TrEMBL record:
<dbReference type="Pfam" id="PF06013">
    <property type="entry name" value="WXG100"/>
</dbReference>
<dbReference type="InterPro" id="IPR010310">
    <property type="entry name" value="T7SS_ESAT-6-like"/>
</dbReference>
<dbReference type="InterPro" id="IPR036689">
    <property type="entry name" value="ESAT-6-like_sf"/>
</dbReference>
<comment type="similarity">
    <text>Belongs to the WXG100 family.</text>
</comment>
<protein>
    <recommendedName>
        <fullName>ESAT-6-like protein</fullName>
    </recommendedName>
</protein>
Length: 96
């Protein structure tokens, strides 16, 4: 039977890395939006309407991605804490 071992520090580090990447993506999306807004400011008519529709859809999808990454980071952190508590509880059962 195989052993089960967890590196709790690494699990928490992974949760933080996911949050960091999420923040980096958010920053990059903001930079892209700023540059595209500069271009779009001169658009009129159908081009402007089409861009607005696509930009709104893209904004919703970016928000969904940010939410998913935030949730993933939180769940990884919570799972690490739960495993650490479970291991401590099992260890306490062996105490006299």
């Amino acid at each position: 039977m195989g052993d089960i071992a967890y590196d709790f520090g690494h699990i928490q580090e992974l949760a933080q890395q996911i949050q960091t990447v999420s923040s980096q993506i958010e920053g990059l999306l903001g930079e892209i939006d700023t540059e595209v807004q500069k271009l779009a400011s001169g658009w009129e008519g159908e081009a402007q309407a089409t861009w607005h529709t696509l930009q709104t859809k893209w904004g919703h999808e970016a928000d969904d991605l940010k939410g998913t990454l935030h949730d993933l980071s939180a769940k990884v952190g919570q799972a690490g804490e739960a495993m650490q508590h479970a291991e401590a509880a099992i260890g306490n059962k062996f105490q006299p």
